[in-house]
Amino acid sequence: MEPILRPAQMRDAKKIHELLMECSAEGLLLPRPLGDIYGQIRDFKVLEAEDGTFVGCAALAVIWENLAEVRSLAIARGWRGRGYGNRLVESCCEDVRALGIGRLFALTYQVRFFERNGFSVVSKDLLPQRVWIVCANCPRFPDCDEVAVVRRVDGPAASPAQS
Question: Is this structure's pTM higher than 0.90?
Protein backbone atom coordinates (compact mmCIF):
# COMPACT_ATOMS: atom_id res chain seq x y z
CA MET A 1 0.00 0.00 0.00
CA GLU A 2 1.20 3.51 -0.83
CA PRO A 3 2.33 5.81 1.97
CA ILE A 4 -0.13 8.50 3.01
CA LEU A 5 0.78 12.11 2.21
CA ARG A 6 -0.42 14.48 4.92
CA PRO A 7 0.41 17.78 6.62
CA ALA A 8 3.03 17.40 9.34
CA GLN A 9 2.00 17.48 12.97
CA MET A 10 4.06 18.38 16.02
CA ARG A 11 4.59 14.70 16.74
CA ASP A 12 6.48 14.49 13.41
CA ALA A 13 9.10 17.14 14.20
CA LYS A 14 11.63 14.78 15.78
CA LYS A 15 11.17 12.22 12.99
CA ILE A 16 11.69 14.96 10.39
CA HIS A 17 14.80 16.13 12.21
CA GLU A 18 16.18 12.59 12.47
CA LEU A 19 15.64 11.96 8.74
CA LEU A 20 17.24 15.27 7.78
CA MET A 21 20.25 14.55 9.97
CA GLU A 22 20.65 11.08 8.39
CA CYS A 23 20.44 12.55 4.89
CA SER A 24 22.83 15.33 5.86
CA ALA A 25 25.36 12.75 7.09
CA GLU A 26 25.09 11.14 3.64
CA GLY A 27 25.83 14.51 1.99
CA LEU A 28 22.39 14.69 0.37
CA LEU A 29 21.27 17.96 1.97
CA LEU A 30 22.12 20.48 4.66
CA PRO A 31 21.01 19.85 8.26
CA ARG A 32 18.32 21.87 10.02
CA PRO A 33 18.05 22.54 13.73
CA LEU A 34 15.13 20.90 15.51
CA GLY A 35 13.96 24.33 16.68
CA ASP A 36 13.55 25.46 13.06
CA ILE A 37 11.44 22.41 12.30
CA TYR A 38 9.14 23.08 15.25
CA GLY A 39 8.81 26.71 14.20
CA GLN A 40 8.04 25.81 10.59
CA ILE A 41 6.06 22.60 11.11
CA ARG A 42 3.11 24.06 9.16
CA ASP A 43 5.35 24.24 6.07
CA PHE A 44 5.99 20.47 6.08
CA LYS A 45 4.21 17.54 4.51
CA VAL A 46 5.15 14.00 5.39
CA LEU A 47 4.76 10.58 3.83
CA GLU A 48 3.86 7.87 6.32
CA ALA A 49 3.41 4.15 5.65
CA GLU A 50 0.27 2.42 6.87
CA ASP A 51 2.23 0.84 9.74
CA GLY A 52 3.40 4.30 10.91
CA THR A 53 6.87 4.10 9.33
CA PHE A 54 8.18 7.56 8.47
CA VAL A 55 8.91 7.57 4.71
CA GLY A 56 9.80 11.17 3.87
CA CYS A 57 9.14 14.87 4.12
CA ALA A 58 9.34 18.19 2.32
CA ALA A 59 8.67 21.79 3.29
CA LEU A 60 7.32 24.62 1.17
CA ALA A 61 8.40 28.15 2.04
CA VAL A 62 6.82 31.17 0.39
CA ILE A 63 9.62 33.62 -0.39
CA TRP A 64 7.86 36.36 -2.32
CA GLU A 65 4.67 36.97 -4.25
CA ASN A 66 5.95 35.02 -7.25
CA LEU A 67 8.46 32.61 -5.72
CA ALA A 68 8.41 29.68 -3.28
CA GLU A 69 11.07 27.20 -2.19
CA VAL A 70 11.09 23.43 -1.73
CA ARG A 71 13.10 22.80 1.45
CA SER A 72 14.17 19.74 3.40
CA LEU A 73 13.07 17.19 0.82
CA ALA A 74 14.16 13.82 2.16
CA ILE A 75 13.21 10.17 1.73
CA ALA A 76 14.23 7.44 4.17
CA ARG A 77 16.95 5.14 2.86
CA GLY A 78 14.81 2.02 2.36
CA TRP A 79 12.12 3.95 0.50
CA ARG A 80 14.25 5.78 -2.11
CA GLY A 81 13.91 5.15 -5.83
CA ARG A 82 10.16 4.51 -5.69
CA GLY A 83 8.92 7.95 -6.77
CA TYR A 84 8.13 9.31 -3.32
CA GLY A 85 10.43 12.32 -3.75
CA ASN A 86 8.60 13.10 -7.00
CA ARG A 87 5.30 12.84 -5.14
CA LEU A 88 6.44 15.37 -2.54
CA VAL A 89 7.68 17.78 -5.23
CA GLU A 90 4.36 17.54 -7.07
CA SER A 91 2.52 18.21 -3.82
CA CYS A 92 4.60 21.38 -3.40
CA CYS A 93 3.77 22.35 -6.99
CA GLU A 94 0.04 21.86 -6.32
CA ASP A 95 0.27 24.10 -3.25
CA VAL A 96 2.17 26.75 -5.19
CA ARG A 97 -0.46 26.72 -7.95
CA ALA A 98 -3.25 27.01 -5.36
CA LEU A 99 -1.50 30.03 -3.85
CA GLY A 100 -1.11 31.68 -7.27
CA ILE A 101 2.69 31.61 -7.16
CA GLY A 102 4.33 31.05 -10.53
CA ARG A 103 7.75 29.66 -9.68
CA LEU A 104 9.27 27.12 -7.35
CA PHE A 105 12.98 26.81 -6.61
CA ALA A 106 15.35 24.74 -4.53
CA LEU A 107 18.95 24.95 -3.43
CA THR A 108 20.21 21.40 -3.77
CA TYR A 109 22.96 18.85 -4.19
CA GLN A 110 20.52 16.57 -6.04
CA VAL A 111 20.46 18.42 -9.36
CA ARG A 112 19.54 15.44 -11.57
CA PHE A 113 16.54 14.61 -9.39
CA PHE A 114 15.19 18.15 -9.73
CA GLU A 115 15.92 18.28 -13.47
CA ARG A 116 13.86 15.08 -13.90
CA ASN A 117 11.06 16.96 -12.09
CA GLY A 118 11.03 19.88 -14.54
CA PHE A 119 13.51 22.22 -12.82
CA SER A 120 16.34 24.03 -14.61
CA VAL A 121 19.68 25.04 -13.16
CA VAL A 122 20.04 28.82 -12.76
CA SER A 123 22.60 31.19 -11.31
CA LYS A 124 22.07 31.80 -7.60
CA ASP A 125 22.65 35.47 -8.39
CA LEU A 126 19.17 35.51 -9.97
CA LEU A 127 17.47 34.64 -6.70
CA PRO A 128 16.13 37.57 -4.67
CA GLN A 129 18.06 38.90 -1.70
CA ARG A 130 15.35 37.62 0.63
CA VAL A 131 16.63 34.08 -0.06
CA TRP A 132 20.08 35.07 1.18
CA ILE A 133 18.70 36.31 4.51
CA VAL A 134 17.96 32.67 5.35
CA CYS A 135 21.30 31.56 3.91
CA ALA A 136 23.21 33.99 6.12
CA ASN A 137 22.52 31.68 9.09
CA CYS A 138 23.98 28.64 7.32
CA PRO A 139 27.38 27.35 8.45
CA ARG A 140 28.45 27.20 4.79
CA PHE A 141 27.63 30.85 4.08
CA PRO A 142 29.05 32.61 2.09
CA ASP A 143 30.74 29.61 0.44
CA CYS A 144 27.52 27.88 -0.58
CA ASP A 145 28.07 24.78 -2.69
CA GLU A 146 24.40 24.05 -3.37
CA VAL A 147 23.00 24.48 -6.88
CA ALA A 148 19.94 26.65 -7.56
CA VAL A 149 17.14 25.10 -9.63
CA VAL A 150 13.84 26.68 -10.67
CA ARG A 151 10.58 25.39 -12.15
CA ARG A 152 7.58 27.25 -13.46
CA VAL A 153 4.57 25.55 -11.96
CA ASP A 154 2.20 26.66 -14.70
CA GLY A 155 4.42 25.54 -17.56
CA PRO A 156 7.96 24.55 -18.47
CA ALA A 157 10.93 25.34 -16.26
CA ALA A 158 12.19 28.92 -16.45
CA SER A 159 14.76 31.17 -14.85
CA PRO A 160 13.84 33.38 -11.89
CA ALA A 161 14.35 36.43 -14.09
CA GLN A 162 11.34 35.37 -16.17
CA SER A 163 7.79 36.00 -15.00
Answer: no
